[in-house]
Each structure stands twice: as structure tokens, then as C-alpha cells.
Amino acid sequence: MSSHRDEAEYPADEYEMEDVDDDMDENDCLNNKISDTSTAQATRGTDVQGIPWDSCGITREKHRQTRLEQYNNYENIPHSGEGSGKDCQPTEKGASYYEFRRNSRSVKSTILHFQLRNLVWATSKHDVYLLSHFSVIHWSSLTCTKHEVLDVSGHVAPSEKHPGNFLEGFTQTQVSTLAVKDNLLVVGGFQGELMCKHLNQQGVSFCSRATHDDNAITNAVEIYVTPSGAVHFTASHNDCGVRDFDVEKYQLSKHFHFPWPVNHTSLSPDGKLLTIVGDNPEGILVDSSSGKTVASLHGHLDFSFASAWHPDGFTFATGNQDKTCRVWDVRNLSKSVAVLKGNLGAIRSIRYTSDGKYMAIAEPADFVHLYDIKSGFVREQEIDFFGEISGISFSPDTESLFIGVWDRTYGSLLEYGRRTNLH
What is the pLDDT of residue 19? Predict the structure, then answer.
């Protein structure tokens, strides 16, 4: 990933909704009862984000057109977004797999690096964890309440002693990525920090600086369970390394090194293969035990920042700054199964439902696309809003979809529920 920006701060203030309504009272968005939007309100015609278009001096349609024309997609390889269109398949938009439930503006989602957007994780249809400024918070959509899980603005030190545990801890960690699964929270930082916290225990169990390389940022973390039942997590770093940790004793179990910075990895359901994508147009598939390359993935035109496996273990997807998501089949990797195009920019996050019926891909802003996999990715639901996307997450039971929206005025957490009356 790019490391040329000071602190890698998010660069695009010109795209914030604040510019549409400078004359509005921003205190309105601090009042949960006033600013949140419910299903009933949306049904009656209220904008799902609470944007009062009648007072903005511009229509929603006109602002959408302006965004499409002016949004500047970040590319490491110039014109990659233009060249990727020739391989993309057409889709039938207008499907409705998930319906709007609530927009919660009292939940302020945050992005600290403009290329890293895996900062929202649902653990049930009502429970979601996300980054808000210097804190990881838990939000309950059932009670519409939030509480702080981990504050990294000050000093954080581990409460347990393990070999390799950095007992001095960290101060003012800038969170670049996180993951939550089975009561375990793993947080990655800009300086290679890794922190582990069990959600059902007090304190932080483990702190480690995975690398002291100048280019150390933790780009992604993934928690998984091995076939033997052991809990592990994989960390992808900008120093070209992928590290695997055993959570039982917090020991580094594997360390693979690649020719370029690794932005994301994902493990196949059987645990045998790792998808590796990063600062190279070609991704690779490697043996998860040895790190040896099994196959190269040809087709993308820029750097990739997202990957995910379908639960069937045969297909997986990669997301790229060339504005495309490519779907691959391990039984024939000579070409992509499908190439899906975004509207504004890079595909920075990909998620499958646990039952394998739907795949969601998120652009940097404004659009999340849901695809019916059985249709061959032909039928699509396009979720359309305004704001940068901090992350997307299906609940494990597939009942909910959460979308983190970063914006100084209209930042929020969007919640959608799976429709049950589909034929």
C-alpha cells in the first residue's frame, strides 16, 4: 500500500457531504433521536441518511451525478480504472436481497488510512464492532446503545505474560485494521503493532510489534480456526511479510516473505491455501503451510486491497484499485470467472454470506454492491448513499449487513436486513 502520505491520513475532504449543507446546524447530527432514520421513516420518504435535500440547494440526483463525474479514484498505476472496463460483464441492477433497517448517526465510524477499509465486524445480527476515532466500540442494534471496548488513545499494555509479549505496551496507537471473531479482537497499527483482547475478559492479553521496518503498517488481520480447533490469526504487513500467530500462547507460528507489500490475505475454508494480494497487479495463491506459490492470478491492472473465499472452498474474489472485483475458481485459474466493475473507485472490501448465496463488495465511497452468486453474478442490488466506507460486514447468520460510513457531518452505521420473501 502507499506510504507516501504523512501519517497516511485520509485525503479527500472535497468529497464530504458537509460541503452540500454548510449552512445546516451540525449539532442536529449529535441528537440520536432526531438524526437516526428508521425503516418506517424511510418508507415514508425520509432520506435514509437524514440529508434534508429540500434545504441543500441541490437535488440528490444532481449531487449523485456530480460525485460520479468528480470523484478521484486513487491509482498507483495511472489509468488502470480506464483499462479494466473491457473485461467487465454487464449486470442486471434493481434486485433487493437486503432491505434498509436503520441508519445510526450516533455511531461515528472512522478511517485512518484511505486505502484500508476493514474496520467494521459483525458478530451477530445485533452486534457489531467498529473503529470510532481512537476507540474500538461495540454497537447493539437491538438496544441502540454503544460502549467502548478498547481505547488506544493513551497507554495500552498487556495484562498477561507470554514469551514475545511487549510488556511495555503502546501509546497513542493509530489503528489501521481490525478483526473480531469468537470473542477475540485483534487490532493492527500503523507502526506494525498487534494487540489482542478477549471480549469476555478485562484488559489486553497480547501486544507485539510485528516488525521494526520503517514501512511497518499492519494492512489486514484475519482470525480463523484450524481443523484441530486452535484459534489463529494472520497479519499482513507493508514490510512484505505475512505472519501467523497461535492465539493459545500468542506465538508466531509462521512467517512468509513476499516480493512486495502485502495488503490483504484470506485463508481457504479447508485451511490449505492463502490468497495473497498487495502492491502488484498480480495476486498469488500460496500453500498455507509452506508459503510456496501454487498459482499466479493474472488480470488486475493495479494494486489489490481485498480478498475473500466463498464457503464452498472452490471460488474466491479479489478487489483492486482498477475499480474491479475478479472472481476466481481454483480448478481453473487461467482466467477470472467474473469481472465486476465499480462506479466510483477501487474495490476495497469483499464479504460473502456464510451460506454462500451472496457476495458484497464495497467501493471507497457511496456504493456497496450485492450479487446473487447463483445467477453467475448477473443480478445485483446496488446500495447507494453518500460518504466514505470504513467497512462492511454480514452477520454470521446472514441476517444483517452493516456498512460503516465516514463523514464529518453524516458519518453513521447503516444496517440492512435480509429479505425472507424472495422467490
Answer: 52
CB 153 within 8 A of CB 187: no
| Bridge partners of residue 180, in order along the sequence | 185
Measured CA to CA in angstroms, residue 208 lies from 114, 274, 323 at distances of 24, 23, 34
Could you tell me the end-to-end alpha-carbon distance of the chain, in angstroms, rounded to an integer?
42
**C-alpha distance from residue 409 to each of 13, 110, 341, 368 (Å):** 12, 12, 29, 20
Where do the DSSP E strands lie in 304-373? 304-309, 315-320, 324-329, 338-341, 349-352, 358-362, 365-372
- Structure confidence by residue, pLDDT tens digits, 370-385: 999 999 999 999 999 9
CA distances from 245 to 52, 110, 196, 248 (A): 48, 27, 11, 9
Cα–Cα distance, 286 to 139 (Å, whole number) = 36
- Contact yes or no for 185/137 (Cβ under 8 A): no
**Rounded Cα–Cα distance for residues 95 and 324 (Å):** 20
Question: For the stretch 376-401, what's the b/e string if a residue is b when 16 or more beta carbons lie within 10 angstroms of its beta carbon?
Answer: ebebbbebebbbbbbbbbbbeebbbb
Q: Is the pLDDT score of 31 beyond 60?
A: no
Instruction: Give the list of residues 6+ apart from residue 333 with CB closer than 8 angstroms, or none.
Output: 285, 295, 296, 297
Sequence-separated (6 or more) residues with CB below 8 Å from residue 88: 324, 339, 340, 341
Asked if residue 314 lies in contact with residue 299, where contact means CB atoms within 8 angstroms, the answer is: no
Residue pair 138/129 in contact (Cβ under 8 Å)? The answer is yes
Q: What is the number of alpha carbons within 13 Å of residue 125 lying toward its C-beta?
A: 11
Q: What is the pLDDT of residues 156-176, one digit of tens each?
A: 999 888 888 899 999 999 999
Three-state secondary structure string covering 224-282: EECCCCCEEEEEEECCCEEEEEECCCCEEEEEEECCCCEEEEEECCCCCEEEEEECEEE
pTM for this predicted structure = 0.93
For residue 162, give the C-alpha cell. 507470554
| DSSP type of residue 84 | G
In contact, 305 and 116? CB cutoff 8 Å: yes
181 burial class (0-12, 13-18, 19+ CB within 10 angstroms)? Answer: middle
CB contact at 8 A, 208 and 216: no
273, 265 contact by CB (below 8 A): no
